[in-house]
Write a structure and sequence with these properties.
CATH topology of the largest domain: ABC transporter transmembrane region fold
Distance between the termini: 34 Å
Keywords: ATP-binding, Membrane, Nucleotide-binding, Transmembrane, Transmembrane helix, Transport
Strand content: 5-15%
CATH class of the largest domain: Mainly Alpha
Protein name: ABC transporter related
Structural class: alpha/beta
Largest sheet: 6 strands, mixed
Number of strands: 10
Helix content: 55-70%
Pfam families: ABC_membrane, ABC_tran
InterPro entries: AAA+_ATPase, ABC1_TM_dom, ABC1_TM_sf, ABC_transporter-like_ATP-bd, P-loop_NTPase, Type_1_exporter
Strand order of the largest sheet: 6-7-8-3-9-10
GO molecular function: ABC-type oligopeptide transporter activity; ATP binding; ATP hydrolysis activity
CATH architecture of the largest domain: Up-down Bundle
Oligomer: single chain
Order of helices and strands: HHHHHHHHHHHEEEHEEHEHHHHEHEEEHH
Bound molecules: adenosine-5'-triphosphate
CATH superfamily of the largest domain: ABC transporter type 1, transmembrane domain
Length: 598
């Protein structure tokens, strides 16, 4: 296939409105409340810095009008000293203002990120089904990052700029009302430019953000799917698609910059015209209205201080738009309620004494699309129950419901008569241990990973569990033994070894009920034998629910449940089901034929 013929990849494009939504911004600014003292102090520094900055032109006016004509060197010296003092105060206060604003801003971002992280950690599996890891990460990292500018500089700068602008205007009008009025006659022209360009600027930057979002999504998808990409040798095709995506970002960026570029020169032109007016008109007033040379110099200085903040103020509007869009997405996540909640008066169960019952359980991941239909069965204490059936028949769903990752849509699951929904999370997690198909280890040491569910366990307990599972020797032989790091850059462990460490993690908790969801499916034959041996030991005298594709591993199960399209097709032990010559018999026969043929 030629590069040009390559189909575009499917990647998420998040639509963002970029409308200014005041309720979101209000909610966002509430995060500032705990830091109001710091904010107030920042504003004090800001105010002092602004006043110090605005006093200088007035001092200059005094020097030019009073002390220079009189050749009063002492006066000039004092003015000079005062101007240096003002500069010093301005710089010192600005420095403190920036430091405090950054500190407060970072604390606020930390709080928002923490709120999001805490909230997401408690959301139900259904949320993670609907949202990819990439998208969730974008919420916690990128969306919060986009608020960075607003909280660290934006708010303080805008207050500084607004006050500079207002104070400069007031001073100019109080020095000479007429001259100020004439100087500002250029403002309507500026406002016309502002309104003409504002929508175009907004539209173009929105486009840039959309393109950048595409770029992020494409990069994320490519890195997550790198194994598939390399397996299908898609690098060349992907490179050309990536170039297209990058070109899109570049072109939209350049377009936005071009439109944006109109604004700053417009401000400069207005400022320049204002200055010309001051000189042209001021010189006329010089003779008739008692306007002094010092007044003109001070006016030019104040006018400069008036126009400088205008550009930053318009940028602030953009920042608010971005913040409004990001906060909308952040609050959207914060508003999601976990679907699986602990009962208000949960029942604590210390031990598993009796049996588990699935009573007319129906379940749909979405709407009315039932993937379990009227499923009823019983798991007696100390027995091994196996779930078999074609792919997609609902085996994992049963395991997920038993672990209460989801609740049944209809019907109930009872642990000796108590509805699973009534049982406290803590006792449920103590009762049920799960070993999944894909072993997952956190970055850290092997010991930390084993202790994950019981951090207070003793090292001897860990060693005992590992000896029981037959992995103590292999771990001890590693360079750093139990302290060996298993992060990305750490020791590479085989999938089988990782699975055994996961099993040790579960066993340290010693749960009376064990769910094994195709725990050996992703292993090679040798690792499978190792893990299977460990599992046999672990399942002895324990209640277990096993999902396995290889039927030889579940032949000894006390109860085999054969699933078909979300329904129980057959139930019984191996001998009974073989005699019945139904689906189970067919499954066994097809596996035997497959083994013989291979
Ligand atoms: N998170 C999910 N969201 C929506 N549908 C899902 C989800 N997980 C599973 N399903 C659907 O539910 C049905 C049952 O899936 P389940 O994973 O329980 O089957 P299974 O028998 O365990 O399959 P396999 O042997 O392939 O693991 C399938 O049609 C599947 O597409």
């Amino acid at each position: 296939m030629s590069d040009s013929g390559a189909r575009r990849p499917i990647f998420s494009q998040e639509e963002t409105t970029y409308e200014l939504k005041i309720p979101h911004l209000k909610r966002l600014f509430k995060f500032l409340i705990p830091y109001k003292k710091w904010l107030l102090l920042t504003l004090v520094f800001m105010f002092v810095a602004t006043v110090a900055d605005l006093i200088s032109p007035y001092l200059l006016k005094q020097a030019v009008d009073i002390y220079i004509p009189k050749k009063n060197f002492k006066g000039i010296l004092i003015i000079g000293f005062l101007m240096i003092l003002m500069l010093f105060i301005n710089k010192e206060c600005s420095k403190n203002k920036i430091r405090l604003a950054n500190r407060t801003g970072q604390m606020v971002l930390f709080d928002i990120r923490k709120a999001l992280f805490d909230h997401i950690q408690n959301l139900s599996f259904s949320f993670f089904d609907r949202n990819s890891t990439g998208r969730i990460t974008v919420r916690i990292v990128n969306d919060v990052n986009t608020l960075n500018n607003l909280f660290t500089n934006g708010i303080v700068n805008v207050v500084t700029d607004m006050s500079t602008l207002i104070i400069a205007t007031v001073i100019m009008f109080s020095i000479n009302f007429k001259l100020a009025l004439v100087t500002f006659s250029v403002i309507p022209v500026f406002l016309a430019v502002l309104f003409a360009t504002r929508n175009a600027i907004k539209r173009n930057w929105r486009q840039v953000r959309r393109k950048i979002s595409n770029l992020n999504a494409y990069i994320h998808e490519n890195i997550s799917g790198i194994r598939v990409i390399q397996a299908y040798v898609r690098q060349k095709v992907n490179r050309s698609i990536f170039k297209e995506v990058i070109d899109d970002v570049f072109l939209s960026w350049m377009k936005a910059v071009k439109v944006n570029g109109i604004f700053a020169p417009a401000v400069e032109v207005c400022s320049m015209i204002g200055t010309l007016i001051i000189y042209f008109y001021g010189v006329k007033l010089l003779k008739i209205n008692g306007v002094t040379v010092g007044t003109l110099i001070a006016f030019v200085s104040y006018l400069d201080r008036f126009w400088r903040p205008v550009v930053t103020l318009s940028n602030f509007y953009n920042q608010l738009l971005v913040a409004s869009a990001s906060s909308e997405r952040i609050f959207e996540v914060l508003a999601i309620e976990p679907e699986i909640k602990e009962d208000e008066n949960p029942v604590y169960i210390e031990d598993f004494k009796d049996r588990i019952e699935f009573k007319n359980v129906w379940f749909a991941y979405k709407d009315e699309e039932y993937v379990l239909k009227d499923v009823s069965f019983e798991i007696k204490k100390g027995t091994m129950v196996a779930l078999v059936g074609a792919t997609g028949s609902g085996k994992t769903t049963i395991a997920n419901l038993l672990a209460r990752f989801y609740d049944p849509t209809k019907g109930s699951i009872l642990i000796y008569g108590i509805d699973l929904r009534k049982i406290s999370f803590k006792s449920l997690r103590k009762l049920i241990g799960i070993v999944q198909q894909e072993p997952f280890l956190f970055s850290g040491s092997i010991l930390e990973n084993i202790l994950y569910g019981r951090p207070d366990a003793k090292f001897e307990d860990v060693v005992r569990v590992c000896k029981f599972l037959g992995i103590h020797e292999f771990i001890s032989e590693l360079e750093n033994g139990y302290d060996t790091q298993v992060s990305e850059r750490g020791t590479r462990l085989s999938t089988g070894q990782k699975q055994l460490i996961c099993l040790a993690r579960v066993m340290l908790q010693n749960p009376p009920i064990l769910i094994l969801d195709e725990a050996t499916a992703s292993l090679d034959t040798q690792s499978e034998i190792m893990v299977q041996n460990a599992l046999s030991k672990v399942m002895k005298d324990r209640t277990s629910v096993v999902i396995a594709h290889r039927l030889s591993t579940i032949k000894d199960a006390d109860l085999i449940i054969v699933m078909e399209k979300g329904k129980i097709a057959q139930m019984g032990n191996h001998e009974e089901l073989i005699k019945k010559k139904g689906i189970y018999y067919d499954l066994c026969m097809s596996q035997i034929r497959f083994v013989k043929a291979s």
